[in-house]
Design brief:
mainly alpha
Length: 67
Amino acid sequence: MLKLFLLIYILAGPTLAGILMTVGLAMRLDNSTMLMMTAAGAIIALPVAWFVAKAILEKTGWGRGNA
């Protein structure tokens, strides 16, 4: 589970952080606010990656030992 979670976070973290940074740039926010938004995107990606990894494992049955 942890390996899959980390692999998904490697993709989801920068993606969500980049989306929120782009929103900050479009809104012409100051640097400190954009930095907070970028960090928030990286933090929001943690539960997203966890739930996606969990859903993948439940759908595929990978890691149960009966494959």
